[in-house]
Amino acid sequence: LVVVAVPKTASLGTVVNLVVLWLVFPVVKAFHEMGHAVATKARGGEVHEMGVMLLVLTPVPYVDSTSANAFRSKWDRALVGAAGMLVETAIAALALFAWVVLEPGLARAICFNVVLIAGVSTLVFNLNPLLRFDGYYILSDLLEIPNLAQRSKRFLTEWSDRTLFKATVRQPMLLAPGERPWLALYQPLSSAYRLVVMVSIALFLANRF
């Protein structure tokens, strides 16, 4: 018989809660990846591979839904990109309801971590198009600008070479109509947001530990 000592109120920084968080994470993400797979199949695509990989000693589920890239409708491609987040949002809502009604204990701690992973982290990371997760690919599909981050970086590099250093670009990139403002804005905004997230996490960890 193994007895797990769970604090009466879930706290992110406790060792026990970090263990629970580590255990809950792959389960939630498995449902996330299943959402991508089901949406791909529903729109006529194929899913040939699913599995689990280790990322910083943490099991992380994955699914190969690249066949969705061949969908002619950008809305279908965006739906596949959003499916995982929709599943996580539903799970977070159920976990939040359970967290409200449950008594303090292991089950309530699990619900707390499910809300943290499926709710907060989904909004801060997955949904945000400035990070290269689901939100980024949804934005790229809706704008119909493949490789948005790479193209933005190249656009700004060429602009700085021409404007600041008066250099000649031998093979300038070809731009589609209306593409220039997105390429000019994306990389600076993405870099600034990543810096804010990194500093916020560092300050949180410094404050806790």
> Structural class of the secondary elements?
mainly alpha
Determine the strand fraction and express it as a percent band.
5-15%
Major β-sheet profile: 2 strands, antiparallel
Low-confidence stretches: 1-8
Radius of gyration: 21 Å
Q: Counting H and I runs of at least 4 residues, what is the number of helices?
A: 6
Q: Please state the average pLDDT score.
A: 90
The helical percent reads 55-70%
Provide the succession of SSEs. HEEHHHHH
First and last CA, distance: 32 Å
Kindly state the number of beta strands. Answer: 2
**Bulk shape:** globular
Q: What secondary-structure arrangement, pairings included, does this model have?
A:
Layout: H1 15-42, E1 50-55, E2 58-63, H2 74-101, H3 106-126, H4 134-143, H5 148-163, H6 180-208
Antiparallel strand pairs: 1-2
Helix pairs in contact: 1-2, 1-3, 2-3, 2-4, 5-6
Can you give a write-up of this model?
The chain is mainly alpha-helical and 209 residues long. The chain contains six helices and two strands; from the N terminus they run αββααααα. Strands 1-2 form a two-stranded antiparallel sheet. A hairpin with a 2-residue loop joins β1 and β2. The N terminus is likely disordered.
Short key terms for the protein model shown above:
globular, 63% helix, two-stranded antiparallel ribbon, 6% strand, disordered N terminus, 209 residues, 6 helices, mainly alpha
